[in-house]
């Protein structure tokens, strides 16, 4: 009796081990990979030799995916042939936890040990990608989807004591302290060159404003939010204007020609009060 029980137990153990071994089917990494589809947007797809395919219902290990490259993704395919439910991706001590709803990726978090390395989150209107370093966010990218456009991107890059935001909605860039106080803002053209900028002190007061008007580049300096100086070049002359209570009190014009410098000083009313034409 004990012998028959032993044989039955042994058979059960073998059956369990065989069932575990067959629970996941490992697919050839050179032929299959997991892919995030752009249309329908954010759908988890299985590609076979670069083309979308539908697997039979069951559990699979895909050894190549768009998120972590060569790694093991443990997925489940439902009767409709789509990825069903949350799954894990494992690679060299890193683990990716992927949340899926009706075949659509909602969030993915990749961790090394307990610390996050990477996070990707999708809502109905945007996607957010975060990169971590030593548990702190080092970079964040947000793409907002619109019907007329595939996406507009906002990128945040974090440093030790501030972070930078680049926004291609209106082509702007801004620096913030870690307490979210604005330090610097810039308006960019389509080529990424600065068209206008403003810098601020620790109290948020304007210090410097650079801008272009009528093809002339201006630099305005402020104290206590009041304009005190303005600098610009016009017709090969350098202009330096001084203000008090934001009213013009003096203008200095310098012109250099063949090694000679001409300097003219005007009062606020535009009257010449000093002239120097020395070499």
Give a short synopsis of this structure.
With about 280 residues, the protein is mainly β.
Stretches where pLDDT is under 50 for at least 5 consecutive residues are 6-21
Q: Given this structure, which CATH class of the largest domain is correct?
A: Alpha Beta
CATH architecture of the largest domain: Alpha-Beta Complex
Determine the CATH topology of the largest domain: Outer Surface Protein A, domain 3
Order of helices and strands: HEEEEEEEEEEEEEEEEEEEEEEEE
Spatial extent as radius of gyration = 32 Å
| Count of domain modules | 2
**Which structural class is indicated by helix and strand composition?**
mainly beta
Give the CA-based shape: elongated
Q: Got a strand count?
A: 24
Largest sheet: 21 strands, mixed
> How far from one another are the termini?
119 Å
Oligomer: single chain
Keywords: Signal
Please tell me about this protein's structure.
The chain has 279 residues and is mostly beta strands. It folds into two domains: 22-121, no CATH class; 131-278, Alpha-Beta Complex (Outer Surface Protein A, domain 3), CATH 3.90.930. Helix content is 7%, strand content 63%. The chain has one helix and 24 strands. The protein has one helix at 2-21, and strands spanning 25-27, 32-37, 43-48, 51-53, 58-65, 69-77, 87-91, 94-101, 104-112, 115-122, 126-133, 136-146, 149-158, 162-167, 172-177, 182-188, 194-200, 206-213, 216-223, 226-234, 237-244, 247-257, 260-267, 272-276. The strands form two sheets. The chain has a 21-stranded mixed β-sheet, with no helix packed on it. Strands 2-3-4 form a three-stranded antiparallel β-sheet, with no helix packed on it. The longest helix has 20 residues, at 2-21. It is elongated and about 95 Å long.
């Amino acid at each position: 009796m004990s012998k028959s029980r032993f044989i039955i137990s042994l058979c059960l153990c073998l059956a369990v081990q065989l069932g575990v071994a067959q629970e996941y089917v490992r697919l050839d990494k050179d032929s299959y990979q997991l892919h995030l589809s752009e249309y329908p947007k954010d759908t988890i797809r299985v590609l076979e030799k670069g083309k979308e395919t539908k697997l039979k219902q069951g559990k699979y290990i895909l050894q190549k995916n768009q998120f972590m490259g060569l790694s093991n993704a443990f997925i489940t395919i439902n009767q409709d042939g789509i990825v069903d439910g949350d799954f894990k991706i494992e690679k060299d001590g890193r683990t990716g936890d992927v949340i899926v709803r009706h075949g659509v990726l909602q969030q993915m978090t990749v961790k090394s040990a307990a610390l996050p390395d990477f996070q990707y989150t999708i809502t109905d209107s945007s996607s957010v990608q975060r990169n971590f370093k030593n548990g702190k966010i080092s970079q964040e990218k947000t793409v907002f989807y619109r019907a007329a456009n595939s996406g507009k991107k906002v990128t945040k890059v974090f440093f030790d004591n501030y972070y930078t935001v680049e926004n291609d909605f209106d082509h702007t860039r801004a620096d913030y302290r870690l307490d979210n106080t604005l330090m610097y803002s810039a308006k960019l053209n389509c080529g990424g060159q600065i068209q206008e900028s403003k810098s601020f002190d620790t109290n948020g007061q304007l210090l410097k404003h650079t801008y272009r008007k009528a093809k002339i580049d201006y630099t305005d300096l402020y104290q206590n939010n009041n304009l005190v100086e303005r600098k610009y070049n016009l017709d090969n002359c350098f202009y330096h204007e001084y203000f008090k209570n934001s009213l013009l009190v003096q203008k200095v014009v310098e012109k250099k020609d063949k090694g000679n410098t001409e300097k003219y000083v005007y009062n606020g009313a535009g009257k010449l009060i000093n002239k120097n034409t020395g070499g």
